[in-house]
Amino acid sequence: MSDVMAPMAGARSEGLISIEALPPQGQISLRCEVSDDYRAKLGELLGLGIPEPLSAVEEGDRALLWMAHDELLLLLPYDAVPEMLARLNTTFEGWFIAITDVSDARAQFRLSGPHLRDVLSKVTPADISPDAFTPGMVRRSRLAQVAAGYWLRSASEAQVFVFRSVADYAFQVLSLAAGPGGEVHHHTREAISEQDASSHV
Amino acid sequence: MLILHCPCCGVDAAEIELAPGGEAHLKREGPGSSDAALETYLFTRDNPRGVVLERWRHAYGCGKWFLAARDSVTMEVYGTYAAQTHAPPQEIVDRITARHPGWAEAL
Amino acid sequence: MSTRLATGGRFTDRGKQIGFTFNGRRFTGFEGDTLASALLAGDQLLVGRSFKYHRPRGIVASGAEEPNALVGLGQGARFEPDQRATTTELFDGLVAESQNHWPSLAFDVGEINAKLARFLPAGFYYKTFLWPRSFWKYVYEPVIRQSAGLGKAPHPEVRDADRYEHFHAHTDVLIVGGGVAGLQAARNAAHAGVQVLLMEQAAHWGGRAPVDGGTIEELAPEAWVAQTVAELEAMDNVRLRLRCMGAGVYDHGYALGYERVTDHRPGAQGPRHRLWRIRAKQIVSATGAIERPLSFAGNDVPGVMLASAVRDYVVNYGVAPGDRTVVVTNNDDAYRTAILLKQSGLDVPAILDARPMGGGALMQEARDLGIRVEPARGISKVLGGARVTGVAICDQAGGGSMLEEIACDAVAMSGGWSPVVHLWSHCGGKLTWDADGAFFRPDPSRAPTGADGKPFVIAAGSANGHLGLQEALACADGAGKAAIEAMGCGFEESPVPKAESTAEAPLLPVWLMPQGARADLRMKAFLDYQNDVKVSDVQLAAREGYESVEHAKRYTTLGMATDQGKLSNINGLAILSDALGAPIPQTGTTTSRPPYTPISFGAIAGEARDAVFQPLRRTPMQDWHEANNAAWEIVGQWRRPYCYPRPGESRHAAVNREISATRESLGLLDASTLGKILVKGPDAGRFLDMMYTNMMSTLPVGKCRYGLMCNENGFLMDDGVVVRLSEDSWLCHTTSGGADHVHAHMEDWLQCEWWDWKVYTANLTEQYAQIAVVGPNARKLLEKLGGMDVSKEAMPFMTWADGRLADTPVRVYRISFSGELSYEIAVPANRGRAFWGKLLEAGAEWNITPYGTEALHVMRAEKGFIMIGDESDGTVIPQDLGLHWAISKKKEDFLGKRAQQRPDMARDGRWQLVGLETLDGSVLPDGAYAIAAGKNANGQRNTQGRVTSTYFSPTLNKGIAMGLVEHGPDRMGEVLSFTAETQDETRDELTTVEAKIVSPVFFDPKGEKQDV
Ligand SMILES: [Zn+2]
């Protein structure tokens, strides 16, 4: 057994959507001003653009998520963290910045399926409608009673992150929300036709 | 169940994403201040029926504090603005004054 | 009798029979029936007993306004009281029972209350049960308990078998009510391209129009409804919801919808109810209108119904509530009922029309059908007890002298209609009196306003007082367009659908029938069926001086509970205003509160029950604790091991074993819950000097320092060890419950006060698993694991180092909360569980013993270390706890410094921390007070101190305690008396325990054990 165990690692539930706890994910929090000089330096180092507010940029196995006007979250392979930390620290030597490894602090889930938006709307007050929350956007809000981040990766897939201590809670709440018979057919027409098909069987 | 626009991240946040922080623009009184000034700072709040300037934190969102000008009776929101100020911006003052003539003078 | 007709029933499918039971008796109905329609089809008129007098009651209405037919539905884990039969869709195997009866529905002991009605007048709660006092226990309470309450609560041990959920919806326009008005408003809004959510509480679209007749665009209303629903369903921007009630409207366009997802198909997969938490820019309230009863004697006898409800049962369910129905009215609409009944082949012996000249075209139509119409007449009283047998008719203008008795088995009454203004009113919309219609309707100049200060609720159709079909459609058409305009959107001009219906003559307000009803009649004329409020009660309240409508409501209970004024409001107000001699608009109206009709607790709770009732935070080692039989202590949302009892071992014994093993050899604690906040930046030192009472800026890199945090009021807020990581970064440990709060506190000061200081914080609490390795053999264990030098020389007390242990990256702090040699080791949380296992394995040779929070507490108390929340309670300053050494005198300022200079903080005689030792070695009761001489101004014993922490110390083999005592540190050796409960549980008395004031440091006062 590996010494490294992500919270809820391997947990999976199938319902209106699939919910899967992701393996350990490298995560580096960057608190800094997102001014031109920081942008330039970060962009050069990471090979990634700087995300607009409430969004993310991704490239290969790396992504940069906008968390607040002075906070970014870098996602990268777990094993790549020490080297990246070292490079960041060197690059920003003497700059006003807080670079912290938070890879173990958060649990990441992948949610996918045609009922994605409906299931999310059961647990978060954020506007999840297709007009308001488009692929590539990041929104921090609530997941039932805990704080969570939502990164919409496509129309039917999202990555959701919570603090690791409440990973079990989040997984259970999401699984309940995705429970059978809980179709709402509010956000998507496809889901509606799907129901019509099944109800006539 | 208010909705306040968070000026820090641009989200229209439902009240359950927010944490309240009481009256805005208090002047901190540290060592050397008089007992009366300290009392005002720590304990004396106007809590008016009408226009209130108050602190909110987008606790479940971007985590930032911001300020809101709101009517405690009608729930009208005159605007939200950065916490790093000592007074509301003019456009918000104008909006308040349009509803409550003489409000700015009475401050 | 009440029967199923040979044909008819829009909603029922006669091909599908459904069996159900009511009070154990088997009935059958059809698919599409409500419980009420099926009961009526089975001639079950008597459905319950009234709340106060236990009078027999029958079904009055056909919808949400039904006051009487509240039943207990389901069994066992699915039992629910107070379910409205008129809105309960029938399903196979439904089990219902009536309420408020004892011992049986037909024979009820409580009916004696009715005989005593003159002794149970308005305000009887307030008057009757006051004296004598002793009667409460033996007479009043047992009797009230037997007969009080609406229905009975489910058994406390039964768990609800269903699940519930919330749904957050954001929409441009929310339209509540799926009648023709709601549909037309939705149409207009939808064609403008905005998002529309339309909800209807019933299982069918169209509301009353298909029953009431007329035409819309030359179609029967039902056909127009079907066409419009199809049109809306085809639109991408429209969402339609049946069985979803608009329950409430709140600030800033927040609205609650209550969807009954599987009530009508129990056992189906999925949630039973769904609570819609809606954010709408505009809300259209198209909630219709409700017919009013007339106030005549016996208007509550089973068989007396609203005229519109009679019509609904005939048209929608093919059920006739009576063979011979007398219609009594003050308006034209009720004639529709008479005409329908006649056309359905049923008898209508008479229409009693209180208006001197009767009605208009509809009256003529009734007469042409051969129905006897009696203008200027009313009902003196209804004959019959458990069901209607006839009516005594009288002149409406008189006092009630009987002119004639007419035999009948049903009475259809109509006192006019009241718009459903509830949603309008919930969020502050005001009403205006409409003298022509004799009702309150929404006052558009005083609408509920939203965040922008502009109206966000628009009333449409009959909910806005437009009762005629054409008027309602025109109003709704305007409402839909107004909602679009309010959002700054344009809309295409489109004509209002053309409707035709028979013109109606004006109504005559009739608040009492007959107008001068004698006292004995008024005592039987019910205003509020559900709360058993009669005309005489409201008149009495007025005579007793309850002039405000809000007071009169509470005194008489008129319009309280689930009714919320639906049926009773206007009639009651009119009686009150008459008694006060003031016009109705001046008398005012009460405010209806959400929800519109009751919603389930399950829906309110949503998914928050059982395992996810609230978040339970888990450390990386939680599964090990669970697998090793931990007893739990709740710390915020964490559940920390209190101790780990072995099979057959008591908790107390386990705690003692854990302490002894730790002090003698080696203990292990999961300390991951401790807060860990990184503070970094050029101004971080300066910032921490403000946050802590100590000087943190001077802490050398590599060192640790215990720090105290106060709020601006000077009171102790949190404590923990602060670590200097590098020139510009510190790591602040907080208490287990305090991490989020302390982090927020720091951010507050950084963002809102010293925003120009260059400091960043990061809450790293969950990044690390933290494990305390404690005891004389702690160093040996770490040396055995290998990888870094943990010797005293390399790592002295109160220092830290990064390194590797057992091939795991670690940060090791040499700090101690137990007084033992101790290392706190932080490892990346993902590795926490594995590292814990390595420590256990390697420590076996020293009998390594995981210990819980209780052992932690006892060991810290033995050392005299304070605990936030025990020694501090929000009124305690560090100086009270003898922590002067941790308060910098060099610093000009820190949070709380100024407040600690307030006279009360600096005064002599504050209670201060001491140790306490009972003379007999027993354990002092927690929270016990030390008694002082004399009494205070309130006649209470004076006190001079209290116990803040108290434990049995296995190390010292006696009780030890800490407490706050007046001048305590100056009174060493003095003996105080503490109050305590007697050990004898049968005696409800207090005794005293004597304890001596000692130093709070009970163990190793020189600290030799930890610094080795
Ligand atoms: Zn924000």
UniProtKB/TrEMBL annotation, chain A:
Signal peptide positions on this chain: none
Domain of life: Bacteria
Entry-linked Gene3D superfamilies: Heterotetrameric sarcosine oxidase, Probable tRNA modification gtpase trme, domain 1
Protein name: Sarcosine oxidase, gamma subunit family protein
Organism annotation: Salipiger bermudensis (strain DSM 26914 / JCM 13377 / KCTC 12554 / HTCC2601) (Pelagibaca bermudensis)
TrEMBL record, chain B:
InterPro entries registered for this protein in UniProt: SoxD, SoxD_sf
GO molecular function, one term: sarcosine oxidase activity
Domain of life: Bacteria
GO biological process, one term: tetrahydrofolate metabolic process
Protein name per the record: Sarcosine oxidase, delta subunit family protein
Phylogenetic classification of the source organism: Bacteria, Pseudomonadati, Pseudomonadota, Alphaproteobacteria, Rhodobacterales
TrEMBL record, chain C:
Domain of life: Bacteria
Keyword line: Oxidoreductase
Domain GCVT N-terminal: 621-891
Pfam families membership: Fer2_4 (PF13510), GCV_T (PF01571), GCV_T_C (PF08669), Pyr_redox_2 (PF07992), SO_alpha_A3 (PF17806)
PANTHER family in the record: AMINOMETHYLTRANSFERASE, AMINOMETHYLTRANSFERASE, MITOCHONDRIAL
NCBIfam families: soxA (TIGR01372)
Name this protein carries in UniProt: Sarcosine oxidase, alpha subunit family protein
UniProt organism field: Salipiger bermudensis (strain DSM 26914 / JCM 13377 / KCTC 12554 / HTCC2601)
